[in-house]
Design brief:
The chain is α/β, with parallel strands linked by helices. It is 31% helix and 23% strand. The chain is globular. The structure holds ligand 6R9. Ligand 6R9 binds next to helix 11, strand 25 and strand 26. Its EC number is 6.2.1.1. Its cofactor is Mg(2+).
Length: 648
């Protein structure tokens, strides 16, 4: 089947675009047939302190897995983001900061940013931070966060950004796992007029750190709110910056030296620290940013993600800054002070490229078109979507209402692990289909396999794998290389397994159908069912819990929890509320259960494995599609669950 509704490349877009259809075909072909030559050429898009002579050295062979790109080159990320632009665009705005409060905005030039970064790099050095140390960053969406991240790269430290919405418990376990002995935070964050107690959370997180290895906490003043102070450990960012020199020699990094780590959820166990290295990542992030967003010099580019997620790393910070772009950094949320905010920000800063998430679009859509009243968004040229499958209805609304029917939408599929976008249209080269991420980027070879790992040809649906390495790929799970190999390369030998399912249509376009493992995608945020379950069962009244996702109009997926209480505990509405609060405290607000259902028993196989497939169907109200339940240890459990679901 070819999907009928196609939005062809328009002549206006084609005229302006960096890559047309023929160029895409030719470049893609070269990138697959001769990757060394292709990436040797495109590897030059970043500045090397010592040029590479080797390009691709990778094997997905399970027993000899190795991923190295540009392995003998040396470079520094902050130099690529800042120093190399000083001569040509020192006074150009690097970052437009748009605060939570619409009256709070400012522009930061490349020169100013360079100064701040060098100063903070010297501060880090003065605090004893060396190449290879892990610096934990727990900060709001402010300019200082970009400064801190880039300063880490200047001295060769590995930053580990923890999303400001995570709880003290989640932060604490990431600090410990990363063996980090320094945390950078702010007094409080600001979101939708509310204060987020970041420093307080850090204090609580470190109280639980029984190793007491965190020697330094640096606190940026954002709100000026009162915070507790631990003498000898806590220091004010502003005080440290006052006397710091703005002269800091960058640390030459090998292409394969770590750049950052970022925790993400998997289907089992604790979140894993995804490790990215320097050379390949910067080449890939900047190249995808330029071509996929059809970025031209002078464009104003706005990605609404948070630094706490990979999109914030690759497409607010590194990709845009390596390209010398003007990147907008937004502290707030799309519906504060009201739902016209997104349109207002676009008009105010004359944004040309807008990159956001389906959940934000659906939330605006639910407000009705009037949320764009009073704004014209005529500066927009390209729209982007990321984080979860975009339903065709939301796609069309985004296209018609936000983009005035004139802007191509690039639906970009990728993952924390991939470092940059792997499947996406290119504005001048790809005809669009609402809901399809379409075609692979240069150097990327997607394929579909069935459960046995047999490659599927032509029109098909199956598990999405990638057949060969690309420069932005993660290199390991911090501290656990074995888990890296097991998680991504053991399911299908010789292939990278994405954890996603996909369909390929008769034109060869890919349609991502969502996770095929036990990972939830709630408002574009990744969460492991295992994490939510382990938070739930840590409550003293809970005996057992099973978590599944269910279709949710705004969030994409909502969190549905089946809970079995300890003998003698009363299943009350108060207890449900308490359990919701409990999970928020353990993980953070993004993990708040949407529905809790009391369960006297859970459907398990005779070997004791919970059959989530059945729980998913019950949560989705699809009782007629339960499939085979005869292998259950106690099939009557299913009827009980359905009855109690219906009687609610
Ligand atoms: C970048 C990012 C990755 C998971 C991924 C997939 C889902 C992301 C998507 C998409 C359909 C898209 N996902 N983009 N699904 N269409 N355009 O989101 O990274 O937080 O690691 O999540 O998100 O399921 O596997 P991450």
């Amino acid at each position: 089947m070819t999907d009928k509704q196609v939005y062809p490349v328009t002549p206006e877009v084609a005229k302006h675009a960096l890559i047309n259809k023929d160029q895409y075909q030719a470049m893609y072909k070269q990138s697959i047939e001769n990757p060394d030559q292709f990436w040797a050429e495109h590897g030059k898009r970043v500045d090397w302190i010592k040029p590479f002579t080797k390009v691709k050295n990778t094997t997905y062979d399970y027993n000899a897995l190795s991923i190295k790109w540009f392995e003998d080159g040396e470079l520094n990320a902050s130099v690529n983001c800042l120093d190399r632009h000083l001569e040509s665009r020192g006074d150009q705005t690097a970052i437009i900061f748009e605060g939570d409060d619409p009256s709070d905005s400012r522009n930061v030039s490349y020169r100013e940013l360079h100064d701040q970064v060098c100063k903070f790099a010297n501060v880090l050095k003065s605090q004893g931070v060396k190449k290879g140390d892990v610096v934990t960053i727990y900060m709001p969406m402010i300019v200082e966060t970009a400064v801190v991240m880039l300063a880490c790269t200047r001295v060769g430290a590995i930053h580990s950004v923890v999303f400001g919405g995570f709880s003290p418990e989640a932060l604490g376990s990431r600090v410990v796992n990363g063996k980090s002995n320094i945390v950078i935070t702010a007094d409080e964050g600001l979101r939708a007029g509310r204060k987020i107690p970041l420093k307080k959370n850090v204090d609580a997180a470190l109280k639980n750190d029984d190793r007491h290895t965190v020697k330094t906490v640096i606190v940026v003043t954002r709100t000026g709110g009162d915070v507790a102070w631990t003498e000898g450990r806590d220091q004010r960012y502003e005080d440290l910056m006052t006397n710091a020199s703005a002269d800091c020699k960058p640390e030459p990094m090998n292409a394969e030296d770590p750049l950052f780590m970022l925790y993400t959820s998997g289907s089992t166990g604790e979140p894993k620290g995804v490790l990215h290295t320097t050379g390949g990542y910067l080449v890939y992030a900047s190249m995808t940013h330029q071509y996929i967003f059809d970025y031209h010099d002078g464009d104003v580019y706005w990605c609404t993600a948070d630094f706490g997620w990979v999109t914030g790393h690759s497409y607010i910070l590194y990709g845009p800054l390596v390209n010398g772009a003007t990147t907008l950094l937004f502290e707030g949320v799309p519906n504060y002070p009201d739902s016209s905010r997104m349109g207002q920000v676009v008009d105010k800063h004359q944004v040309n490229i807008l990159y956001t998430a389906p959940t934000a679009i659906r939330a605006l859509m639910a407000q009705g078109e009037s949320c764009m009243d009073g704004t014209n968004r005529s500066s927009l040229r390209i729209l982007g979507s990321v984080g979860e499958p975009i339903n065709p209805e939301a796609w069309k609304w985004y296209h018609r209402v936000i983009g005035n029917g004139e802007c191509p939408i690039v639906d970009t599929w990728w993952q924390t692990e991939t470092g940059g976008i792997l499947i996406s249209p290119l504005p001048g080269a790809t005809d669009l289909k609402p809901g399809s991420a379409t075609v692979p980027f240069f150097g990327v070879q997607p394929a579909l396999v069935d459960a046995e790992g047999t490659l599927l040809e032509g029109e098909a649906e199956g598990n999405l794998v990638i057949m060969d390495s690309w420069p932005g790929q993660m290199r390991t799970i911090y501290g656990d290389h074995e888990r890296f190999i097991q998680t991504y390369f053991s399911a299908y030998k010789g292939m990278y397994f994405t954890g996603d399912g996909a369909r390929r249509d008769a034109d060869g376009d890919y349609w991502i159908t969502g996770r095929v493992d036990d990972v939830l995608n709630v408002s574009g945020h990744r969460l492991g069912t295992a994490e939510v379950e382990s938070a739930m069962v840590s409550h003293p009244k809970v005996a057992e819990a099973a978590v599944v996702g269910y279709p949710h109009d705004i969030k994409g997926q909502g969190i549905y929890v089946y809970v079995t209480l300890m003998q003698g505990e009363e299943p009350t509405d108060e207890l449900k509320k308490e359990l919701v609060q409990w999970v928020r405290k353990e993980i953070g607000p993004i993990a708040s259960p949407d529905v809790i259902q009391w369960a006297t028993g859970l459907p398990k196989t005779r070997s004791g494995k919970i059959m989530r497939r059945i729980l998913r169907k019950i949560a989705a109200n699809e009782y007629d599609q339960l499939g085979d339940t005869s292998t259950l240890a106690d099939p009557s459990v299913v009827d009980d669950l359905i009855n109690s679901r219906q009687s609610k």
